[in-house]
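tool_call: predict_structure(chain=1)
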Amino acid sequence: MCKNSKNNLKCSNSTPKSEKLITVCQGSYVPTLSDVVPKFEAVGKKGPTVVALGKFDALHIGHQALARKAASMGSPYLLSFSGMAEVLGWPARLPIVAPEERSQILATWDKSPEERVLPFIQVRHLQPEDFVRELADLGVEGIVTGSNYRFGYKASGDTELLQRLAEKHKMAVSVVDLVSIRQHQDSHRVSSTRVRECLQIGDMAEAALLLGRPHRCVLDLPPECSLSQGSLVLPATSVSNLIPSSGSYQISFSLKDYSKNDCKNTKGSNSKLGSGILTINRTTLELSIENSCGQLGSDILKRKLCIEF
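tool_result:
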């Protein structure tokens, strides 16, 4: 028996030091990260398993730079964490990228990196050295981060510490400089926060520069949506991801069946319809169709509306 000084619980451990530490506290098994998350496997890929660490909520050009570096080192993965808002008590908010669009975007990147998401609650209290050890246990052989990356309990670790700790596990580490863009004679650091700020003020031109592509929104087509005289009205709650601020925007639109999509199909089951004006209000979205190369037929409710700004 032993006493855990951190949580003042009596613990027992019968596992030899040469094996993975398994801790039992008051009869409850406390799993390590590698116990609850599948190991990384470079199935169908070549080279060592390399993870780029970040939130990757916007999949912007800074994130793409991380993925590009990881791809140059081996089989690339984007590694992020789920449940941070719930654990830390942050207010809920819509993602920048619609979940349905993520695989399509990544399919256009070098070597099409795969995404892996780890439960934040499982790593929240890990000290920096424990976090790096867990990555090694998961089969990670290389790490890529931005120069401002922090990790470990209370963000106590920086990139210099990451490099020192990773060296003990024979993992290569590459630190990538932050990416900036110039817009309106000003220089802006690329970040998901900046993307959100652009959407909040309706600056779709700068948002596109930050993202490396036009911003797209995906909308469900509920039964109550109405189509009449070239106009489609939808409730604001039908949007899967973050929309720009209230106003009118020139857009193009299409219908997509994401159920037929996979990471190798960058267009999904796509029916390009045309262009128009999207007017965004607090409670509704109204699409006024200007040019259309198709019709909104009876199968409209089987697919989703993809708006490109």
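agent: The longest strand covers residues 269-280. Proceeding to next step.
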